[in-house]
Amino acid sequence: MNYSRQRETVYNVLRSTKDHPSAAWIYDECKKIIPGIGLATVYRNLELLVAQGKAIKVPVGQDQDRYDADISLHFHGACPICGKVWDEEISAPLNAALKAECEKNNSEGFSLTFFRVCGDCKAKQEQ
Amino acid sequence: MNYSRQRETVYNVLRSTKDHPSAAWIYDECKKIIPGIGLATVYRNLELLVAQGKAIKVPVGQDQDRYDADISLHFHGACPICGKVWDEEISAPLNAALKAECEKNNSEGFSLTFFRVCGDCKAKQEQ
DNA sequence: ATTAAATTGAGAATTATTCTCATTTTTGCT
DNA sequence: AGCAAAAATGAGAATAATTCTCAATTTAAT
């Protein structure tokens, strides 16, 4: 695999945030750095990063996929309305139990997501 | 909300399987019972069933969403290649810890999915 | 420098899902 | 049974995220 400035930029942009961004957001950020970058290039390199284990795709059952450069064992909260994704703190015992389970059944990985309406969407509902 | 044969059929088809089918598969099965049923009707009623809490959407980060009429507390395995979804057995302690966590942070629900290449895809890889 | 392999950008193509709207079905009421 | 309002449908158009194609450019080894 050869070096490319585009790939490096996609990775840097993804690493720059904890917001679990969508491909479209990453594309917009990359354009600020490499104005001529193509959307397909962003998708291509995100897919590569995931295949290489340098990023994960966070499935939330919304229209757009979310990406995360944090590949450590951690968990997500997601708003079922707007699709926003955040890191969710869970108890140490649960953390340990999950880690053990994952090792026991030798999964490549797992995804644990709690669904909860986020503050913004709750405010809009109450209007 | 009024009764409709289409809605009942969508629900019955979904309940008839443990395969976590896609909307397209459900549509094909429904057509065997109501040949003239429309695809939009299937989507509409799946969405309704989810909103009513009679089914869940299983996000697996693949192209198509998967649905499940089993709304009990349980967990999934998913193949990252073909998107197949199955029910995954986990240990009682983990089960209890998850239940507690969910109640503690009063989430509407959560999704726990282990990723593992399925037998079919593994066989294809080795060819 | 040269060349083969890898990567890109542009836009077309694909595909899952949602939307629109005229028509049909359901249901409460008489 | 007959009627009207509300709900639901089917068909196909519209939307939107993602993938594909391919000629042109860039990378990296010789």
Percentage of residues in DSSP E strands of chain A: 15-25%
Based on secondary structure, the structural category of chain A is alpha+beta
Biggest sheet strand line-up of chain A: 4-3-5
The largest inter-chain interface, given as chain pair and residues per side, is: A-B, 31 and 32 residues
| Low-pLDDT ranges of chain A | none
How would you explain this protein's 3D organization?
2 copies of one chain form a homodimer. By secondary structure, the first copy, chain A, is α+β, with helices and mostly antiparallel strands. Helices cover 45% and strands 17% of the residues of chain A. Chain A is built from 5 helices and 5 strands, in the order αααββββαβα. Chain A has helices at residues 5-15, 23-33, 39-52, 92-104, 119-126, and strands at 56-58, 66-68, 75-78, 85-88, 109-115. Chain A has a 3-stranded mixed β-sheet with strand order 4-3-5, with no helix packed on it. The first copy, chain A, has a two-stranded antiparallel ribbon with strand order 1-2. In chain A, helix 1 packs across helix 2 (23-33) and helix 2 (23-33) packs across helix 3. The longest helix of chain A is centred in the middle third of the chain and has 14 residues, at 39-52. At the A-B interface, helix 4 and strand 5 of A face helix 4 and strand 5 of B. Strand 5 (109-115) of chain A pairs antiparallel with strand 5 (109-115) of chain B, so a sheet runs across the interface. Chain B binds a DNA duplex (30 and 30 nucleotides) through helix 1 and helix 3.
